[in-house]
Specification:
Layout (H helix, E strand, L loop, with lengths): L1 H29 L3 H12 L12 H30 L2 H16 L5 E4 L3 H12 L4 E5 L2 H9 L4 E3 L5 H6 L7 E4 L4 H14 L4 E5 L5 H8 L3 E3 L1 H14 L1 H11 L7 E6 L11 H4 L1 H5 L2 E6 L5 E3 L12 E6 L1 H11 L4
Parallel strand pairs: 1-2, 1-4, 2-3, 4-5, 5-6
Antiparallel strand pairs: 7-10, 8-9, 8-10
Length: 335
Amino acid sequence: MRKNHHHLARALIFFALLIVIGIIGYSLLLHINLLDAAYMTIITILTVGYKEVADMNAAAKLFSIMIIFGGIALVGYTLTNLVEFIAGGQFQDNWRLKRMENKIESLKDHYIICGAGETGQNVAAQLEMGGDAFVIIDNRADIIKELREKGYLVIHGEPTQEAALKQAQIGRARGLVSALTTDADNIYVVLTARYLNKDLFIVARAIEPHAQEKLTMAGANRTVSPNAIGGRRMAAMMTKPSIFSFLDIITYAGEDVLNLEEVEVTTGSEITGLSLRDAKIPDKTGLIIMSLKKSTGKMIFNPGPDEILEPGDSMIVLGTADRVKLLSDISSPKA
């Protein structure tokens, strides 16, 4: 497809060059202005047979013969490549790519996934199930093609490069996951991302245990060691199978399973300033309040009924997706 694209571009360049040569040639041989020379060139190339704008001398006639043969050959070559360009799918691919780029440019409050390996693709699957907007950055053409066929927004570029992060609209993003295969690359992504967006929530993958501290120093809000998490999960499967099954239920998003979600209390909502007792969240929504994160950062597990809900507080709740949506509406400013 790329070959067809290059052939078409080359044909159009040659066609334009032939027109320029014709204009210059007719203006010199017939001593006419550029507009008349352009007119003569076009009617000669297209062989439409309109009347000449000046008397043709021998040199001009010979020049016209050359232009006609060159024009016929180039028109045929251009049309052939144009048909191959469209039939070969390049036109559709370019249209889809442009459409995807427009969608990426309009992203806001989205997530950026750096690296489309197994970890990155699992992150994408979870975000997709949760209905969250995201864009993936990767440099492997085969993986990019596969992800685009799934309908994902993907940028073909180096996740460590500032240009790719800017193309992903990092300035308007809510969060970023760095899931590259080396600690050095993840640290570089975190440093660059933090420089471009001071308020971005960054989660980074740590390959080696000692890299977690460096990632935090570079600007990551959270670090994840897949090996450590995998080990703990395997141990839990063996020693605490019932608890593990419960955690599995609340870990994976979906309509008919329990979700563990964070809902922020905003200024002007109907529950702002109320105690948990007066807010009656379990009665109104059917959700279980697991913990309350105060705006100061203090985490209160199994909060008591006298705890006051203040702007900036976040409730960690357990329940189905539709119930969480109901609480989000209650916690938002009144219309």
